[in-house]
Amino acid sequence: MRDLQAIIQLHTFITLTKTYQKDWYNLTAKESIMKVIKKSPITSTLSVLALALASSSTMAQDLSITVTNLTQGLYFTPVITAAHTSENHIFMSGTMASDELQAMAEGGSISGLSSILTNADANINENPAAGLLAPAMSASFDLTNDSTNTHLSLAAMVLPSNDGFVGLDSWKIPEEAGTYTLFLNAYDAGTEANDELRGSGAPGEAGMPVPPPLDPLLGMNGTGVTDVESNDKVHIHRGSLGDSDMAAGISDINNSVQRWLNPVAKLTITVK
Predict the structure, then answer these.
(1) Of 175, 170, 138, 141, residue with least CA distance to 154
(2) pLDDT by residue (tens digit) across 176-185?
(3) What is the CATH number of domain 61-271?
């Protein structure tokens, strides 16, 4: 008989949870608790369970995040990281890149992505390395996410490349406290042919941007690896080909320094 009563109580609690869940997101924790207690015919024990569920759904989380460049010769442009709702994405593999993603992937500009995320009420951190993140270096920062911003994304251009970027797409932030480690791949935005030649980095213009730290490390006068790409959607980057001729050849990338394979970054996230 007790087992039957327990089953009935549990079923009633689950039903109430589904009925009033939408209200909890629009109320403070205290208001949510009172709403459940007033409407629920269940015992005080189940009211306490409702209190715990309502409280957990409205709590923000404090995150400590470290991004590490795992490569021997790639630089990352200013990194943007954001906690956002599950519906938002700054990129998605297999889809066409947005103009904002293209600007980041071809020239390192994160202002467009920042605007999109700001309009989506995301919690954002920008440029934790205060510039380029050099090979084997790390940058750390803290981020507090609102209760509805349950997913984490990250992006930064990788140099040298035409339209390559390191990315994390909408990772579900764990509710349980602890330290979590992710290894991140580099993606190709699909917006520019990977000719591997020096250029301006302006969206829609061929060529790779070459900031000062890279200038003496790259070759010049290459003829170009390719001038067309068959895949115009966001996809895993195949890596750079490069060559060993610093004065000519097909590529301006030095294959003894800047050739790489995935993953290119490590992300360490501590949920407090």
Answers:
(1) 170
(2) 999 999 999 9
(3) 2.60.40.2130
